[in-house]
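pinging the channel bc i need a second pair of eyes. not urgent but kinda urgent?? the chain im working w is below, pasted from the shared doc
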Amino acid sequence: MGSLQLIDRLGLYSTIFTDPTTQGHPAPTTDNWAIAYTCLNELKSNETPGSIYECLVRSDDAKYFSWVLAAITPWSQMPLPQPAKPGGKLPPPLGSLVIREGIKGENKIYNVVTGAFRHHEEITALKDAIIQEVEYTSQRDKVGMTIRRWDAQGGHWRLQALFALMVEALKRDSKCESIFPLIYLICSNNEIAYEGLFSEWQQFIDHLEAMDIMDAPAERSIIDGKLLSKELGGAKPGVWMRPALEVVMEWQLRNPGITDYKDAVEEVRKRSEELKIPKP
């Protein structure tokens, strides 16, 4: 945290965490940046089993990535760039360009950052839905497939969740500063300032742990495409294969521990028209 504090104190953020290859992009304010990296430091102070930090930061690489994510939280203020034309390729978030061009980050962290910027609102929305006990949050297949999508589009979904937490801390404390400036000055560096936020995210993690779904991206399909095609009477492989295997995975998540794929294949067969599976 010391390095980020020094950069902050010396006003060097715009020198280090920018994309030098482009001109004219709006720069984020760093007035409350300390909220994000202090938040991470508070989380790191509790590495007991089951804690937020212990569940979301699980390797030496992840520890490094977590500080990179804390460093670029101010860029979450900037809207995500949109395709130049409808249906076009989605441009990378500005924060991702900062990683690639500004600090020359490797592809792995670039991908994590891109996923974090694109998914942090969704992740926070799931957390809020869990807090509110919305019905779909108890559906193992629905939540598990969502987590798998986040992980597939960036990797390290747990670090994407950590970024969402830090962004929410930044937003919450920014509101606190504007409404209760004296209280903010007194408690902004105090663990109590994060108590409610951490309680919510701990509930989010505890819920997913209870569902045994934190490692959903590592779940391997009980049947591969070649065997699935054979079980469907020799249907010719095509664009239908990927969504069909997702149906299999949904079935697996609803039926954890079952390794016999017959019922999963039957689920695919029932949806053959929807999946546009060609008849053998």
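so The chain has a mean pLDDT of 89. and The first helix runs from residue 2 to 9. — does that match what u expected or am i reading it wrong
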